[in-house]
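Lab notebook, design round three. We kept the backbone fixed and only want residue identities now. Task for the bench partner: fill in a sequence for the structure below.
Input structure tokens:
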């Protein structure tokens, strides 16, 4: 049983890497916006335990910033991996082309 033929398009990998980088930049903007939100004392008014609500909100917002930072790090690795994969495929194709052409290219 033979393996199915397939073709890798390095340009498609690079376009996807660029898209991942764009999304990563958008996440950075969200993270920065979250970091700039400060809930002032008394924001929850006369609700029982209003300061605990404020503290809980702050902890949640900080956790979201941390989660975004982790996601951004992963996406950075993804885009880098896609770029490296595209470069490896191009290099491989070039090497095969040189071999087929008798080393002249």
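Proposed sequence:
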């Amino acid at each position: 049983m033979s393996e199915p033929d397939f073709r890798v398009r390095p340009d498609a990998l690079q376009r996807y890497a660029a898209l991942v980088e764009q999304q990563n930049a958008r996440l950075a903007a969200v993270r920065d916006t979250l970091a700039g939100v400060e809930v002032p004392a008394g924001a929850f008014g006369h609700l029982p335990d209003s300061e605990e609500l404020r503290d809980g909100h702050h902890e949640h917002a900080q956790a979201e910033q941390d989660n975004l930072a982790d996601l951004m790090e992963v996406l950075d690795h993804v885009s880098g991996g896609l770029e490296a994969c595209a470069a490896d495929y191009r290099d491989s194709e070039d090497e095969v082309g040189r071999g087929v052409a008798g080393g002249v290219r």
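Keep this in mind before ordering anything: The chain is about 75% helix and 0% strand.
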